[in-house]
Design a protein that fits this description.
Blueprint (H helix, E strand, L loop, with lengths): L15 H24 L3 H18 L2 H17 L3 H18 L2 H17 L3 H18 L2 H17 L3 H17 L3 H17 L3 H18 L2 H17 L3 H18 L2 H15 L9 H18 L2 H17 L3 H60 L2 H8 L6 E14 L2 H5 L4 H22 L2 E6 L2 E6 L8 H23 L5 E15 L5 E5 L1 H11 L6 E4 H12 L10 E11 L3 E10 L2
Parallel strand pairs: 4-6
Antiparallel strand pairs: 1-3, 1-4, 2-3, 4-5, 6-8, 7-8
Helix pairs in contact: 1-2, 2-3, 3-4, 4-5, 5-6, 5-7, 6-7, 7-8, 7-9, 8-9, 9-10, 9-11, 10-11, 11-12, 12-13, 13-14, 13-15, 14-15, 15-16, 19-20, 20-22
């Protein structure tokens, strides 16, 4: 394989997009090479190519391909019995698929994680993953996924020695596979039914299921499936002490494994054949052949570093030498068997310990994430209480400075008449309770009419229509809000038996809206329109709505176009003539009233 150049060596002649395409193409080649090694039982050789493929996919920028590459490494790690690493990569792939939102891939990942937990004999977690995957597949109507997970659940129950449930799930899977003619899925589950019956010593039924699976695989010309079922049939005949038939099926499988280059299958099957030749009752009894097969199994097992098949082969060879009274050789291989078995189980124990540590870290990380999420949600809630939702979202997205120019807005100002004198007559608690009741109702009315409350300063209340989102009918909304506020204050005076009144001022025009402060955020409004609205309020009269000529013009235009609120209010404008307004000079203004 030629060396893959780093991006820097191509930058002079390739654009960024061209480089990404090259990286993606080479990643795909490496990925296919990795899968090819894996399919031939060469997981160790597969891993470096998969890891290099992942690096290139990261550079190409394709999230989907990165997630697939992470999943591939998880699968390879599973084949290498590196379960903590497998879970780590599968979990990373799962998180990426969740971000992408690919339900099919999420379910597939959950199934892969379930396989790892099944291999670790953590059946409750395996079932949990399979059930979650099954639910997703049912939701999206993926029948192939449904059937595959039914089969996986069956495998768990088979490991739990619950043959009835296992068979039930396998039969359900076969039923679905039959619906859309998935021969491979049917054959796989027929083989599983054969294994269940073999474990129950129902050998005729087991052979029947294996034969059905074998026939389907032969029609499909799926050699791996053919070989695995030949081995399964051989295993049944071994248990039935029919050595000639067992040998026949093992040799048939071995020939296919050689043909497809599946070293793991070759090593295991050599180990199956050797002990048959060592049986005295076997017509073809031949200790030399037995020894040869066992040595070949050991040599290949060492080549692919399959310790489990190795320790079985060393034990068989030790027993063979014991039969021949070759005590020294027997002892050597027994020690190797014992050492390898200890290594396998100590490695498994180590992996279990690593897995437990991994789970602990994941659980701690999840707890931290939940705490941070709760805090964030609380902060978000507080932020939404003091800022408009759209503005809060921009801050949460990391926007540092928010200042927006709004061409057409209507500004509302109100002030309680005689508030200073009133504050001297009541207690602080009474004053606060009164303001809270009034302004809480103002807030409710503002929300109903789509206005954004800006702030309260003492007894003054400021709101705006057309901010932060533009509203064509901003003037009509502000007018309707002002009318309802006046009506509310009339009702409040009657209820509280007081003479409390407010002045209201309205103006429309341009304004700048934005957030000031870093620790204590405040959403505010600036511009001449704000100042003019404030002057309309301060130059107005108690219990009345004082508006500028600009506001009258804007409201009239909105009403004439027939746009705006569902509830139409008929407004009338009472001229005040020209008046001197502080900071503005002579202005023509009006009192706004309604006829209905």
């Amino acid at each position: 394989m030629e060396n893959i150049p780093h991006k820097s060596t191509l930058e002079a002649s390739k654009s960024e997009e061209e480089w990404k395409k090259i990286a993606a193409l080479r990643a795909r080649v490496l990925n296919r090479l990795s899968i090819s090694f894996l399919n031939r039982g060469m997981a160790k050789e597969s891993l470096p190519h998969a890891e290099e493929s992942l690096k290139l996919y990261f550079q190409s920028g394709s999230k989907q391909e990165v997630a697939n590459a992470l999943n591939c490494i998880g699968t390879i790690s599973t084949h290498l019995s590196d379960y903590p690493n497998a879970l780590d990569y599968f979990q990373k792939a799962l998180e990426m698929h969740k971000v992408i939102g690919n339900s099919d891939s999420i379910a597939d990942n959950l199934g892969s994680i379930g396989i790892v937990y099944k291999k670790l004999s953590n059946y409750s977690k395996a079932l949990d993953c399979y059930q979650k995957a099954l639910e997703i597949y049912k939701e999206i109507g993926n029948k192939n996924g449904i059937a595959a997970n039914l089969g996986s659940i069956g495998l768990v129950y088979m490991n739990l020695s619950d043959s009835t449930k296992a068979q039930d799930y396998y039969l359900k899977a076969i039923e679905i596979y039959n619906e859309f003619g998935d021969k491979k899925g049917i054959a796989k589950n027929l083989g599983n039914l054969g294994i269940v019956n073999g474990n129950l010593s129902n050998y005729p039924e087991a052979l029947d299921y294996f034969q059905q699976a074998l026939d389907i695989y032969k029609v499909m010309r799926y050699k791996n499936g053919i070989a695995s079922n030949l081995v399964n049939i051989g295993n049944v005949y071994t248990k039935l002490l029919d050595n000639p038939k067992a040998l026949y099926y093992y040799q048939e499988a071995l020939e296919i494994y050689h043909e497809i280059g599946y070293k793991f299958g070759i090593a295991v099957n050599l180990g199956n054949i050797g002990p048959i030749y060592a049986k005295k009752e076997f017509e073809g009894y031949d200790l030399e052949k037995a020894e040869d097969y066992m040595h070949r199994s050991i040599a290949l097992g060492e080549e692919i570093d399959n310790k489990e098949s190795l320790y079985h082969a060393h034990l068989a060879l030790s027993e063979l030498y014991e039969m021949q009274e070759r005590w020294k050789d027997s002892q050597i291989h027994f020690k190797k068997y014992h050492s390898l078995k200890e290594e396998v189980y100590s490695e498994e124990a180590k992996k279990q310990a690593e897995l437990m540590e991994y789970r602990r870290k994941i659980e701690e990380s999840e707890r931290d994430r939940q705490v941070k999420l709760a805090r964030f949600q609380e902060q978000e809630k507080i932020l939404l209480n003091i800022l408009p939702e759209q503005i809060a979202e921009r801050i949460l997205d990391g926007e540092k400075q928010i200042a927006d120019l709004h061409e057409n807005v209507s500004v509302f100002f109100s002030d309680i008449v005689g508030f200073t004198q009133l504050s001297q007559k009541v207690t602080p608690d009474e004053l606060l309770s009164m303001l809270n009741e009034i302004f809480t109702e103002f807030d409710r009315i503002a929300r109903n009419h789509g206005l954004e409350k800006i702030k309260t300063i003492g007894d003054a209340y400021m709101a705006v229509a057309g901010v932060p989102l533009a509203q064509e009918d901003h003037a009509q909304r502000a007018a309707a809000f002002a009318m309802e506020v006046i009506e509310y204050m009339k009702a409040y005076r009657k209820k509280s038996n007081s003479d409390l009144q407010i002045r209201v001022g309205l103006h429309c025009g341009k304004a700048i809206a934005g957030v000031i402060g870093e620790n204590k955020f405040a959403y505010d409004l600036w511009g001449d329109s704000v100042n003019t609205a404030s002057r309309m309020e301060s130059h107005g009269e108690a219990g009345r709505i004082h508006i500028s000529e600009d506001f009258k013009s804007c409201l009239t235009q909105t009403l004439s176009k027939g746009k705006g609120l569902k509830t139409i209010i008929d407004f009338i404008f009472e001229p005040r003539g020209e008046m001197e307004v502080k900071g503005k000079g002579k202005m023509k203004t009006y009192f706004l009233e309604k006829t209905n």
